């Protein structure tokens, strides 16, 4: 199973907003970056991702799950843009800031640390475990 990281500005769409969408979740629309789109095309239903609040907070706050694989983005006029649907599954016990991730030597190769602008990015198995360790695990919703 692959792991991912989804970035969203919390004043536009926060983790609490995703929680409010319930089991159905929400399409991860509006992505207009080829690398991020290709990452979504690679996702499989049931894979997990960190939910990262960008701009405000700059921290990993929760875990979401791919609820539907890549499909046309309903907000795009061009069919080349696709998205996945995601739903919230858990909060991290303690948010992990970008500064904390950058300070952790074991995360030196993490995409978030090296390319914090990419909105949808892969997370390695080891990075996933390290983040969960730093966060003290998760809390059920």
From TrEMBL:
List the protein's name: EVE domain-containing protein
A Pfam family matched in the record: EVE
> What organism is recorded for this protein?
Paracoccus denitrificans (strain Pd 1222)
What Gene3D superfamilies is this protein classified in?
ph1033 like domains
All copies of the EVE domain together span 2-134
Query: The organism's lineage?
Result: Bacteria, Pseudomonadati, Pseudomonadota, Alphaproteobacteria, Rhodobacterales
InterPro entries the record matches: 5hmC_binding, EVE_domain, PUA-like_sf, THYN1-like_EVE
Superkingdom, taxonomy of origin: Bacteria
